[in-house]
Write a structure and sequence with these properties.
By secondary structure, the protein is α+β, with helices and mostly antiparallel strands. Helix content is 16%, strand content 44%. The protein has an 8-stranded antiparallel barrel with strand order 2-3-4-5-6-7-8-9.
Length: 131
């Protein structure tokens, strides 16, 4: 519990959080499920990848090289965590925010990504997952 509080408090040092409002993972998923989100670096604007939210607990992540992997979603308090088949890091967690420009996510190591597009198109994969 203390670690979460420190994480949340420290976010204000990593991003202009005064203009952002933290939302719950459930509110984030309400906007994401059934959609494909494009993630870009907050400062650079460079494409990070796209993620198709198949359900509230399953995604397909497509990197910029179009390599895809399935992910399992795990909600832990204010965090939404992703465990991918090819990267099973249980600490790959993000805290979602919303502001006048849309959705932003901030990781535990203070990587900040903005959702730059939300569509209903599926991700495009060089090696499409089978199920």
């Amino acid at each position: 519990m203390f670690a979460r509080a420190v994480f949340a408090a420290t976010l204000c040092l990593a991003a202009p959080c005064l203009a952002q409002t933290q939302i719950t993972p459930e509110a984030f998923l309400d906007q994401a499920v059934g959609k494909t989100l494009t993630f870009s670096g907050y400062k650079t604007g460079e494409l990070v990848g796209t993620e198709q939210f198949l359900s509230r607990d399953k995604t397909v992540w497509a990197r910029t090289d179009r390599h895809c992997t399935y992910g399992q979603i795990d909600v832990r308090g204010p965090l939404i965590c992703f465990i991918y088949e090819d990267h099973p890091d249980p600490d790959n967690c993000w805290m979602p925010f919303i502001d006048g420009e849309g959705l932003t996510v901030i990781s535990r190591n203070f990587d900040i990504q903005r959702i730059t597009a939300i569509t209903e198109k599926p991700v495009i994969c060089e090696d499409a997952p089978l199920s």
